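Running this now, will post back.
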Amino acid sequence: MTFLLNRKVKGLIMQPDKSAQVHREKEVGTLSGWAMLPVVIVLLLAGVATFIFAVRELAAPEGSQTLGVCLFVSAFLVEVLFVTLCFGFFTLQPNQARVLVLFGDYRGTVKKDGFHWTNPFNKKLLVSLRLRNMESDRLKVNDKRGNPIEIAAVVVWRVHETAQAMFDVDNYENYIEIQSESALRHLASSYAYDHGEENELTLRSGVDEVSRDLQRELQERLGKAGVLVEEARLTHLAYAPEIAQAMLRRQQAEAIIAARQKIVHGAVSMVEMALRELRERDVIQLDDERKAAMVSNLLVVLCGEAEVTPVVNTGTLYS
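Update: finished.
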């Protein structure tokens, strides 16, 4: 019995939540605030005038008390209507939007800038559509080869779907920050910092490709919040302090080896050219032993770090 109950509970936990839905933005129009402003002003003046008449009616000896009370109530209702209608006014600057919610129901989004008026009972949530930057902290993660590195990135983003940003995630700005950090960690663990295999893309050698990969992964993650990622680029990349010195010595050794390879390659080419020209011009005939000695001396001269002091042979080549 307990086993069957556990299986049922597990099945309930593993099932996806079908009640969750993706909200799509729908743009709606509103009344011009400038057109409604005279109406509201007329209501204000009408309420004030009605209140004055009510006071005069109640204060006059021959006035009707019933009419005065009715006028007073009417003035009060008119002023309440005036105050209520005033809550329907709002303004929008360029690249701003207002998400309208009426008693928990999404009514639409207003994106046109200007002075507007809408149902005063609508809740008007302001959303910025402007480009924004988010620079991550320096994260300490392990790269593909397990080396600890420090990495940071800057993300340029803007809200594209206001309904998704407001209703599909709890706090879209906090969601962007956490998901960006998660995507950056995943990216760092997918590439080696440097010294990859042949033709392997690394974080140092393929900055543009890595940035495009980061932007693509961020778009997949942040698209659920109605966010469009315009650009994502690494701003900091370095080995962690505990291995930085060791990696620096490794890079220096590799640079020395690469330089030595070029020096040796050039020296061999020069020796080969010297022997070939001596042979072609028939300047001197050298046996294999003398050729080996000449090659050895030339390589010492060309590949040595210190300046070589020549020794002049006053005899013959065979003495």
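The helical segments are 2-14, 33-59, 65-86, 162-167, 172-190, 207-222, 241-280, 288-303. More later if anyone needs it.
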